[in-house]
Amino acid sequence: MVKALRVLCWTMGVACVAIGLLHVVGGNAAIPGAESAGNTIDSLGRFFGAIFAGYGMAWIWAVRQSPVPSRAVRRLAGVFLLGAVGRLLSLAVSGTPHSFQIVLLVIELALPPVYFLLADADEKRAAAASGSTRRAVPVAS
């Protein structure tokens, strides 16, 4: 479970940084279905791209800790889930978006429970390892 947590955190971090930078550089062209959305949406998309890249850096920071902090994983996964809630609200209010946005919604709904489940795996492993090390040290008489 620790390996799965680390792989998923690294993947999320790198993907979010790459996607965020793509939006900063590409503007509207990076948003399927929004290529001609205008200057205001272009500005907004580039701004949110930078924020998303920062979000990815937070995932990378978390996975580089030893052990990976469960609180950070849960909070970052919660933010991801909140993004899915935003998409669901948009779907209810504005209707069906570009099909790629639906794919993203499915990912944003599916991954947070996995992160919540795995969040404390590395902390548990570290606690077990430190506990077993203490027991293995012989006591001098």
Describe this structure in words.
This protein has 141 residues and is mainly alpha-helical. It has 5 helices and no strands. Helix 1 runs antiparallel to helix 2 and helix 3 runs antiparallel to helix 4. The protein is elongated and about 60 Å long.
Q: What characteristics describe this protein?
A:
141 residues; mainly alpha; 5 helices
Helix-strand layout with pairing:
Blueprint: H1 2-26, H2 39-63, H3 70-94, H4 99-118, H5 121-136
Helix pairs in contact: 1-2, 3-4
* Count of DSSP strands: 0
- What radius of gyration results from the CA coordinates? 20 Å
Q: Describe the main β-sheet briefly.
A: none
Principal-axes geometry comes out as elongated
- Uncertain segments: none
Order of secondary-structure elements: HHHHH
Which class best fits the helix and strand makeup?
A: mainly alpha
